[in-house]
Amino acid sequence: MDKLILPRMDVEKQKTVEKTRKDATEAAIAQVRAKIKEQLEAEQAAREAAEGEIIDSLLIHVYGLAYKMLCVLTHVIYTVVCTGSLLLSL
Length: 90
Fold this sequence. Notes:
Largest sheet: none
Number of helices: 1
Order of helices and strands: H
Strand content: under 5%
Helix content: over 70%
Distance between the termini: 133 Å
Number of strands: 0
Shape: rod-shaped
């Protein structure tokens, strides 16, 4: 009787080992894919943050230049108005 059961048990054991190996491999592949996806998302977020900082820096610089130009323009207008007033009073 053992001669009949033992080969069948070996086949079942081999099938179980193969299924376990296949399941473990698939789980490992899924974990690696998840880690790669997580890494790619983190890199994308870092790039977007860096781009945002560059844009913020440029906007600050542009606003600073616009303010300086406005100050110069205000000074020029004031000078023209004062010069015009002086000429009218002559």
